[in-house]
Cell surface protein
Amino acid sequence: MPAHAAAVGYTVQVVKPKNQDDKTVGYFALRTHPNAQQMLEVIVHNQTDRPQKFNVHVTQAVTNSNGIIDYSQYDPQLDPSLKVKMRDLFAKRQQTITVPANGRVPVKVTYQMPAQRLRGCVLGGIYVIQAQPQQVKQTKAKIRLRDIFAYAVSIRLRESPHNVTPNLRMNRVGVAQVDRQNLVTANLQNFEPGILSGMSVQASVKARNGLRPILQQNQKPLGMAPNSNFNFGLPWGNHNLKAGPYTLELTAHGDGQTWHFVRNFTITSRELRKLGPTNPTKPNNWLYLLLAAIIALLLALIAYLLYRNHQARTQRQ
């Protein structure tokens, strides 16, 4: 069935081959074998009355910083545990196509499996993205380009009928700044060639030997690509962590498994200096009090005017 990119003016249709081992899904879930060579095909439908140009990439699935399986990165940083890379299986990983108005163009890519038997699965995608904005939208205030839309079709290759169970380890714990927000980060790594889905994470940070958590963060649902890692972040919020020793405790649940990690770490003065300025998140209580006072005065004024109007009507009667 076609995969729709809503309100974009195009769709991407998967042509499922005979070795599709899950016919209920709208992506390539394929059972293959060593040395196998196979051509995959998707069809890009242009639903507009003008030609559209698209860039098509074959990508490796990774886990992004939000704990989501990401198919959009053409040349991502790969996890050291990844043995079979999607980029090594496809000789032609990038192409550009032009689809005529209200037309359709097939896109074909070919993979070849290594001679050595594959354990688990390799996960990637065919990533289709508009090569240019649809048009320039002009207003009196500014000129801006319309959004460029993309769609990813997953490719899951495996040789065994059985999935490999994912597994987690926690690597480095430290501090970082993302979008001017300070975080304590814990690097989580799925070091097995299995997909981890429906994961929830509960984490807290407290001073070493402290009783109460200073930071807490709970997130779900998360997912991890096979043989990938990402930095789970605990925002500082209104807390201003000082240099010193801390303890992070993290519990993850997913695919019927539970992982529990406890890690001591130290924040140094040098690390704090490197973080730079942050966006203020502490609420301005004086501003809230001022707004409350203005609202109270307006309500009192309205009540007085209504009362005076009522009195005036009573006197006239």
Notes: The mean pLDDT is 89. The chain has three helices and 20 strands. The first helix runs from residue 86 to 89.
